[in-house]
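INFO worker-7 received task bundle
INFO bundle size: 2
INFO processing item 0
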Amino acid sequence: MTLAQSLSIGAPEVVLAAGALVLLLLGVFRGNDSLKGLSWGAVILFGLTALTVIDDAPARELAWNQIYVADSLSAFLKILILAGAAAAVLMALPYMQRVKQHRFEYPVLIVLATLGMCVMVSANNLLTLYIGLELMSLAAYVLAAFNRDEQRSTEAGLKYFVLGALSSGMLLYGVSLVYGFVGSTEFTRIAAGLSAGGERNMGALFGLVFVFAGLAFKVSAVPFHMWTPDVYEGAPTPVAAFFATAPKVAAMGLFMRVALDAFSGMIADWRQIVIFMSIASMFVGAVGAIGQSNVKRLLAYSSINNVGFMLIGLAAANAAGASAVLLYLTIYLVMTLGSFLVVLSLTDADGNAVETLDDLAGLARSRPWLATALAIFMLSLAGLPPLFGFMAKLAVFNAAVDAGLWLLAVLGVLSSVIAAYYYLRVVKILFFDPPADVVVNGEGGAVINNGMMIAAAVFCSPIGYLLLGPLAQATRTAASSLF
């Protein structure tokens, strides 16, 4: 394959890379006053990238000596990633104005992280996987400590960097073991090598464990979740929203591709690992959130809990399970973005962020629409019908039952009941507690943020079921790339 053909197939990454360089140069020459222009430029860049993704979506094509794959799965995941990244850029504009952090680097870092995520979901080689993962992570470490004058943000960045470096080392060690015992880092050759011997390859199994450990850190699955609450709480709210959405989509999509493509010959081995992480994540996320008083920490544990549900679909190891994971990712992206948009809108009379649950008491009396939106997102995250989040959990439970994983599905339902407690507690505080009168109408209610919040709330409401048919068809098409 010629270089021109490879560049054509990898057009989304080419556009993002070129755009990131242009934005960086503009920022350097124009300074921090260019933040607003660069932010909108990043959003336009994401739109152009999405057009190149859609244009190349139908066929499965390999590029750059088969280390890069463009198929319906990568196209679906890239659309979600680009949407999450665009939302993170837009919601940051009023926030940056309020905290007086007019730094042009923010949209540039988001674009670079997005470039890494797009490389991740198109990886057809363990080394491509690692390069994409590190490109995303290096930008994410800086974003976590973006408010460098604030102790919490600096601490969050340092914790994320140290633990992220550890997970990257484990992943790279696993890659070296797989290469040593299988003889290749290309996904298709790994799958063929594992299937050819007829006997269990213990060396490759050890490598698989280390690779899965590195990926579990990126999706914040138990027992590699310890960084999540502190980083979400300490990072700026738009950054926390970004971490909870786009990178989660990319990492989970990569997890699926590695498990169901590269290690398809070891399903019986890695399924046990995934089941353990699923059960542990569901219950740690459900129980850990009960005692939280900070909204962002609560959403961090909610993220861990939801990752556990996604892993149920992966454990099914079939097309229905993969499709259920993609549907869950789509709905989860919108629910989580909506939740963080509400958090971003919570400010006191001095313009300071309000993040404590007690300060939200009686919010429904002073800001009923904001309280209603947060209630919709909380109940949808809980998976209560008739909200759209119910369909996400129903899909993964059905996939588990079809795969014979009855006990896993039952434990998933049980953890949903436990998790419902803290989601309903938030609703109770909003609507039934005496007003704290802390939250006022402030900067957080920017027109763009309010528009995205309303759109997310409508999507999570029963109206979202109107999109279920097209979404289900798109997820089935994307999942078929793995089988």
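INFO item 0 finished
INFO processing item 1
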Amino acid sequence: MDRLRCLQVFAEVARCGSFIKASVQLSLSKATVTKYVAALEAQMGAQLLKRNSKHLALTEAGTRVLRGGRELLDRYEALEGDVRNAVLLPRGEIRIGTPPSFGAYHLTRVLAHFTHHYPDIEVTMVYDDGRSDLVAEALDLSIRIAPALDDASYVAVPLLRVPQSLVASPRYLLAHGTPRTPQDLRQHNCLVHTVKSASGIWRFSGAESCEVKVRGSIRSNLGDSLKEAALMGAGISLHPHYMVADALEQGTLQAVLPEYRPDELDISVVFSTRRNMTHRVRHLIEFLKEWAQNPPGWASSAETVWRLPPAADDGAAPGLPDE
């Protein structure tokens, strides 16, 4: 039996923590997955997994095999990529993490163009709120959107800076009044993103730089949930401009304190140095960098960005979507 395939199947079982989930991911039957793992255990002369009806765990030998096997698979894929890159288009799977809103509204468009150019590459998008372990989740890359990146174990490639917009529904502002200064936010129900503003501190520049600690009835690590709450009149929320541009244009949300600029966020693509980078991943990084050189309208840093209408379709090149 193919030893590399045995390692691939075993690594997927370990990642999923389940034979059934791994079989779905690999498009194999559970019996076939079990056969590959059993063959690997026979080759290694050791039990690699402890399993019962409810639990699956690596043995000490399994941990060693997984660590060395991942490195071996990465090296093999890099070798295969080197050879194929000389004569053919790159192929294989890329797993990329993304915040849900950015993934749904923007990254999907970019990846659709990317896979059009590289049809032999299969891209899997995985939810990542900025705290996923890239190695543990087997992510080749992840998009991180934050004021700054603190994790020194990853390499970050800056793509864009995106402004944020402070917003509320007309109904909320009519009922509770409109803040005139950032300090007024202390008297309002503020909807806090637990990843981008874990401490509940919102920072502003403009007429004067300041920061204010806010609180409110709803906190979430899902920006879409906070946006929906704001649309329902639950409070004031802070979002990357791309999430609320349409609502501002339609008037279902209104800009709050437009003369003040909340801190901008960096959009970066990050990867771990603990995994060998394949040619297909390098191609995607270069594609993302090229896209970012022609920034979409929502990436403008103008103070009045919330007043701008959505960018018109100006015939951008197929490889460089303008959204």
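INFO item 1 finished
INFO post-check item 1: Confidence is low (pLDDT under 50) at residues 301-323.
INFO post-check item 1: The longest helix spans residues 60-87.
INFO worker-7 idle
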